[in-house]
Amino acid sequence: MVTGAGSGVGRVVATALLDAGYRVALAGRRAAPLEETADGRESALVVPTDVGDAESVAGLFAAVRERWGRVDLLVNNAGTFGPSGSVDEIAVEDWTSTVATNLTGAFLCAREAFTAMRAQRPQGGRIINNGSISAHVPRPGSAAYTATKHAITGLTKSIALDGRPYDIACGQIDIGNAATDMTAGISVGARQADGSVRPEPTFDPAHVADAVLLMARLPLDANVPFLTITATKMPFLGRG
């Protein structure tokens, strides 16, 4: 299962999984982009879903279990950049909306996946959370997004620990500047810590899909807790 599968990294990852022979449930808010990702494949299941709504997420997992009987892999990818500005400039409703999608959405999907993986036979499965390099360091004016991505790291560690008795592995992929519509502005000009605006290098998101496949193909007695993939020359290691 891939959330946020209608565009960007989610679409690239879902397509790579389908190409690799996986049966993939495609989750996202709008049906039309999900259908484009599915491209008519019988191994794709389109399920329009609001990841921030518990009933919607429960319906997503019920549809998957009805079609295929089990859940072996969840890629928790859905997310939004949210509001831009310093803490005093962020509206409470924009903060709440960002948390609902990026953090609560990931929790709700992981909760349903964990429930299914614990109960099914053979027991177990894998959850891969999409963090961000903002799970390590922020960009200026990104308090809501950065806070949710730091929180994803705690969620990943907790799931990985709690999942051990049930053969549920959990890891996180932290991505920096994959070239998607969501990050298109970065290659033109991104605000830096010193206040300047400069273009930053990007990289082909197909490499993200390769990394997810690497993690997904491991046996459940092996795990990649954290994997960071970035554009080589982006200002991450020297950010600030």
Automatic annotation (TrEMBL):
Which residues are in the Ketoreductase domain? 1-168
The reply to whether Flavoprotein figures as a keyword in the UniProt entry is no
Question: Is Oxidoreductase set as a keyword in this record?
Answer: yes
Could you tell me the keywords of this UniProt record? Oxidoreductase
UniProt xrefs under InterPro entries: KR_dom, NAD(P)-bd_dom_sf, Sc_DH/Rdtase_CS, SDR_fam
Superkingdom of source: Bacteria
Q: Which Pfam families does UniProt cross-reference here?
A: adh_short
Per its UniProt record, what PANTHER family does this chain match?
5-KETO-D-GLUCONATE 5-REDUCTASE, BLR5618 PROTEIN
- Give the family per the record: Belongs to the short-chain dehydrogenases/reductases (SDR) family.
List the protein's name.
SDR family oxidoreductase
Its source organism is Pseudonocardia adelaidensis
